[in-house]
Amino acid sequence: MTTISVSIFNILANEIVSGVLKPGAKLEEIPLATRFKVSRTPIREVLRDLASKGLVQMEPRKGVLVAQIGLEELSDMLEAECELEALCAQIAAHRMSLLEKKQLERVHELTAIAVSKGDDARYLELNHEFHNLISAGTHNKLIAETVGNLRGRLSGFRQAQSKTEKRLQTSHAEHQCIVDAILSSDAVIAFQKMRAHNARLSSKVIEQLSKSNTNKSIKTK
Amino acid sequence: MTTISVSIFNILANEIVSGVLKPGAKLEEIPLATRFKVSRTPIREVLRDLASKGLVQMEPRKGVLVAQIGLEELSDMLEAECELEALCAQIAAHRMSLLEKKQLERVHELTAIAVSKGDDARYLELNHEFHNLISAGTHNKLIAETVGNLRGRLSGFRQAQSKTEKRLQTSHAEHQCIVDAILSSDAVIAFQKMRAHNARLSSKVIEQLSKSNTNKSIKTK
DNA sequence: AAAGTCAATTTTGTATTCATATTGACATTT
DNA sequence: AAATGTCAATATGAATACAAAATTGACTTT
């Protein structure tokens, strides 16, 4: 058996990372309580948990907002993710079991199919699994959890970006290099390739966001 | 103004990392509530926050224990810290301002005095500040916060260790190398030296803990 | 018309009460 | 005697009630 809070947490966390709840949206306790037909108590616990994962911002006596991530905070997150994932690839390269490597290869092959079909949704799903396998391949639960959490918080930005770009082939080619390095247990190359891959994606995200930001400020004027 | 929860959080978090509250100790809501002369509600929020930082383990309907960190979890944490701090040093080496570098140098000099006097407490304090300056030197709040949180969770083990060891000179010499690298903006060396430094400390911690663990299991038999 | 103040309403923080699950002891049964 | 089952006590999960702070809107005043 589980507690009410965790089920509601999962629902809300999902709605936040999937973009159903937009950044800056107010999360008020009473509406949420009535929506889920519970009292305020479990809702407050959920909000606290969401805050601890960085999905919402809560200020005492002010309330809770869906996290709105500024440019500098975003670049902090992207830099951290870039380095952490490179670290994961490095460690995974000399720590993954044969079975784990096979799984990675398999997912990568499936991704190729999604790319050729231009199936964006499927690609995103497999991409998620790809990075999960690598972080799990570190056999370090703390690192895997940390990077997984970061990816969750960033997924909104990635989705927004992948919709407007047709660089699935490029990404897939880069993944190929990473897979090759890990399969051959070459930690140095795995690190470099993963880092370069993420660095490129990061700059795209930043580029896109600062573009839309300038648009906004023009509109506002 | 602040909320009751955060003040109590700080007190309890401090008691946990300082070892006043021992790993495995039960944290019951009613005793805590009476101790702080508040109701259970803010206590529950504090416990939740402590859990999100990994300082306590809470299981639904079971209660809350001060986190007891197993050997495998500890090595995960040490590995993560080792790599993260090395990363910090690397980034800080090419991002710290002149003022920040001066501050680092100053703390390092003060540490030398503490070492020569054999002042353990002061050394620990300065050591904390030393690592804080470097993580802050990344100018990446997320990374700094992450590594700071990790250090907090690990500080109990470090203290236990530093009491039984007289290797302050060794550590200080290693710090010297790190400071030199950062002052001269040599990111590669800063990374390597910091990584080696932490790796050495980590192995000491593990060594010590597994020793006391075997003692325990012998006793239990 | 604009700015400032004050009151009313709304929302969050805290306390209290109610409900339910776990735990430990004791008894019963095999 | 060991094991299992039941029951009472206790602690946590959830709901409700109360208090305090903040926001909002209207009204006054300049």
- So what's the overall shape of chain A? globular
Might you state the CATH topology name of the largest domain in chain A?
Four Helix Bundle (Hemerythrin (Met), subunit A)
Most residues in contact: chain pair: A-B, 24 and 24 residues
Q: For the report, how would you describe the main beta sheet of chain A?
A: 3 strands, antiparallel
Quaternary organisation:
homodimer
Approximately how much helix is present in the residues of chain A?
A: over 70%
CATH class of the largest domain in chain A: Mainly Alpha
Q: Quickly give the CATH architecture of the largest domain in chain A.
A: Up-down Bundle
Rg over CA atoms of chain A: 19 Å
SSE pattern of chain A: HEHHEEHHHHHH
Assign the structural class of chain A, choosing from mainly alpha, mainly beta, alpha/beta, alpha+beta, or little secondary structure. Answer: mainly alpha
Q: Segments of chain A where pLDDT lies below 50 for 5+ residues? A: 216-221
Distance between the termini of chain A: 54 Å
Count of alpha and pi helical runs of chain A:
9
